[in-house]
Amino acid sequence: MALFAAARRAAVSAAPLLLRASASSGANRGAALLRPLAAVAARPQPRAMPFSSAPATRPSSDAELLSVIESEIKYAEDCDDHDRVEEIPENFPFKITDEKGTNAVTLKRTYHGEQIEIVAHMPSLVTGDEPDHDRDDGEKGEEGDSDDDAGEKPPQSSVPLTVTITKGDGPILEFTCTAYPDEVLIDSLSVSQPSGDDEADLIAYEGPDFNDLDENLQRAFHKYLELRGISPLTTNFLHEYMINKDSREYLLWLRKMKDYFKQ
């Protein structure tokens, strides 16, 4: 662009000299040759475009990220549990609905006219990579008791559950639970009658903390759930099922990321 501007200035400055020379000699041919040059000098020049219309190349960071994603996909595919098909126990009382790409599964059954629904969410996993909280001999108490000796259980993987039980159009009984491989802990429970008023439902009293209830009442509620199929048989199966689902959904998520960054 600078070179073209210099040529334009030279043409403009040369034009008067050439015109005077042609006038003194009376040569019309030189004037005719000068007209196109003067027109070029006077013509407005296009501005430089700030953006190029050429296709942009993929940033190197995207290519690096894509390579890492592909490596992680390969690692996930080599794991044994991403394509495992869980065998449903013969006397399993629930029908399972599991949609690909979701973070939960739904279990349903009917029990003596009651509609029971369990929504099992992605598990909270405890693996061998967890930090070791055991204290060595120099850090034990004066009595030498370890955490296990004090009665504390080692951490276990768990599955959050929401259990709802209804009878026709009547009230809804809802439990929030934490399912471990061999037991279910009730975190809270509430009973409500849907009113259609979202604001009223939001501020409805949901009962006390479950652990604050009388122990006999706590045991009675645990028995109530067990009779309706929320038993060790169910939680053991759900525990394995949700761990495998977590692996499948992670691999699906990685493949979606790969497709995005390949575009």
Summarize the structure in words.
- There is one protein chain.
- By secondary structure, the protein is α+β, with helices and mostly antiparallel strands.
- The chain has helices spanning 2-25, 28-42, 60-78, 198-202, 215-227, 232-262; strands at residues 95-97, 104-111, 114-121, 159-166, 172-180, 183-192.
- A hairpin with a 6-residue loop joins strand 1 and strand 2.
- The chain is elongated, with a radius of gyration of 38 Å.
- Residues 1-40 and 134-144 have low confidence and may be disordered.
What is the string of SSEs from the N terminus onward? HHHEEEEEEHHH
Proportion of residues in β-strands = 15-25%
Uncertain residue segments = 1-40, 134-144
Q: Enumerate how many helices there are, as a single number.
A: 6
Q: How many β-strand stretches?
A: 6
Provide mean pLDDT, rounded: 75
Task: Please describe the biggest sheet, giving its number of strands, its sense, and whether it closes into a barrel.
Answer: 6 strands, antiparallel
Please state the overall shape, judged from the principal axes of the Cα atoms: elongated
- Sheet with the most strands: spatial strand order: 1-2-3-4-5-6
Binned, the helix content reads 40-55%
Helix/strand/pairing class, anyone? alpha+beta
